[in-house]
Design goal:
heterodimer; A: 283 residues; mainly alpha; ABC transporter involved in vitamin B12 uptake, BtuC; two-stranded antiparallel sheet; B: alpha/beta; 6-stranded mixed β-sheet; 3-stranded antiparallel β-sheet
Chain lengths: 283, 229
Amino acid sequence: MKAVLLDGIVLGLGFGLLGVGLTLVYGLGGVLNLAYGELAVLGAMVVSLVKDAGAPLALAAVAGVAAAMAAAVLLDLTVMRPVYRQSGEHRVLLGLLVTLGVAFLIEGLLNWRDPLGALTVDIGGGPIGIFGVPMPMSSIWASAITLGAGAILVVFLGATTFGRAIRSVMQDEVGARLVGISPSFTRTVIFALSGALAGLVAVTSAMSSPLTVTQGFDLTSFALIVTVVGGLGSVTGAFLAGLLLGIVDTLSAYYVGQYITSVVLLGAAGLTILIRPRGLLGR
Amino acid sequence: MKGAAAGYLGQKVVEDIDLEVRTGEAVAIVGSNGAGKTTLFRAIVGLLPCMAGRVILDGVDLTRRRAHRVARAGVAYVPAERHLFPAMTVKTNLMLGAYPHRPNRETLELVFDLFPRLKERLGQQAGTMSGGEQQMLAVGRALMTQPKLLMLDEPTTGLAPKVAKAAFEAVERLKATGMTLLIAEQQVPLALSVADRAYVLENGRVRMEGTAEELEHNPEVRRAYLGVA
């Protein structure tokens, strides 16, 4: 039981970080980036390429994160521009269509170039006992990286001038413009951050199980579930929801079976919408 | 601004507007609901594109600049809907007014001097304040941008008559500090009481202009806006 819970926490932290990247972009202008999971896969494939070329793991990871980040920025500077020129429902719908198109494009390209591509990140070292449960080194590394990234993010958004500017755009775009904050520049930064998070999640998740080229949509849907449960646009909400869902996931996998976990997760998301339409910490 | 026009979806709402505000002056735009006051303001600050004409501040052409650049150039706009950051504290709202700089101490003193209530409520979330307090914060946040021109759009919207009067007393004190003001207001007597000059906007065009005193004694204005037969 303790082991299942700890596994759930490890998984949940990963879910949380995954959700944060999606929820930030959503919070800043109402667009759900359906290409989000593909960005993670793209990052993973770059890590795998650089690693296979003989580079050290850390360097490969940095390259992968940078690639996902660059792809996200490119996305923002090109196809997302007309989307953000729209407002209200038009923006939401056009945003869904455009990012879905980009998702298909990236998935198609990666499948065509390397249909069997997969990233495995091997972390050496034996298990370490935590509360008497032997935890694999990979889980400890993944969780530490995730917690570190989450902490940096919370401080960045909460305690820096630029972070406050980002939150101001989330709360009132017109108000932000009136005090001299550029929503489009802010958005580019958030896209970059979101891409980097996608790349980071790709690396940490590949520490425990291989990340294959076909997993983009799975990642996007997990991120969506976390975002909905946590509250659209809330970073702490995403982490909380991630933890909750991670624990639900491992519990249902342990007691019912792996095949049912996605249904249970979706059920949890649906239940959240019914009980708390704004999510755990949504505005 | 000269010969400016603006509107929505290619439909002009205001047209042929020649408007001038001199440094240190308080100018009022008066007119009934739907006359185009807000459209005009939104066009000046770049929230709406100018379809014709120019907007010039101290010789700098702001016509095609986006709103955040107009704000940085020194034009602060307080919309009737205020557009505060509701989930942030009064303090953070004020700090963001100064973005990207650190808040100027003297400006902050001025804001607290005008609105002591804000100083008492520094830690309160903006969204939980009363309409009058939110209006104070909106003006305070605009002042924190250290504007050359402060534009107030219907500062009395949604305020009780007593609070509205207090708001205009604050405007009066603001004017005394030398701030250049452009105020749109439906309550014409209030507007004319602080303004040096005023423009009467009707159906998107300037119908009349003159000093506040001239307009106050103008029979047409008296009949249409001041409720005097």
